[in-house]
Amino acid sequence: MNSRIDSVFVGSLRPLPPEGQRSGIFKTPVSGPVAVGLEGLAGDAQGDRRVHGGPEKAVHYFPAEHYERLAALVAAAEPALVDILKPGVLGENLSGSGLTEATVCIGDVFAVGTCRLQVSQPRQPCWKINHKLGHPPMSRLIADEGCTGWYFRVLTEGVIAAGDAIELLDRPAPDMSLARLWTASEAHRPTPDELHLLAAAAGLNPAWAKRLRERAAWLTNQSAPPC
Prior knowledge:
This protein is about 25% helix and about 25% strand. The chain has about 230 residues and is an alpha+beta fold. The longest helix has 18 residues, at about 205-225. The radius of gyration is 18 Å and the shape is globular. The termini are far apart. The relative contact order is 0.19.
C-alpha cells in the first residue's frame, strides 16, 4: 500500500472559459518542498469554498494511471484530449501511481513528506472539468468510471515534495474502500444498510456521512408498507 508522489501542483485563481468564473482548477507543478497546512498547500487557491478546499478537502490526490484510461475512452470523440489528459489537468494537488479508489479506504492515514494525511472523501467531478477541457460529458464519464481521486484532511502539518514516499500508517475502516463508497453513492437504489455502514466508517467527512444517513432514511421510508 505504499507509493510515491510523482508531482505536486498548486494554482491561483484564473478565469474559466467561457463565462469567466474564477477557478483554482488550473494547476502548475512545483519543484522543491511545499508547505502544507490544515487548509491545504501554500500557494493553492479554490474559487468556490463551498465545494472545494477547507479542512475536509485540503489536499486533492488523483491517481496518474487514470489518465491513460480516460484518454482511451475519449480518443474517438475528442482526439485532441488525448495529449491534454496528463497529471495536473484535473486540478489535483498530488499525483502518483499505485494507489487507486479500489485499494484506498475511507479514513486511511498516510505519511507523506513530514505530513500525516487522512482520506476524507472522494472528489466529486463537476462542470468545471467540462469547461476546462471543452468536453461536456467529461465529468459524467469520470463519475461513471469511478476514477474520481480523493481528498485528504491534514492531521499533521509539514512539507511535501515530488519524490516523497506515501506510507500507509493506519487503516481504521479496512472494508470501506473508496470504490465501495462511490458505487453506493452513485447507485439508483443502494440498500439502507450499506449506506449506514459507509456512513459509520471512521474518518469519513461528516457532511458525506450525514448525506448517506439521510438517503438511507429516505429509502427506508419509501419501502415501508402503507399504514
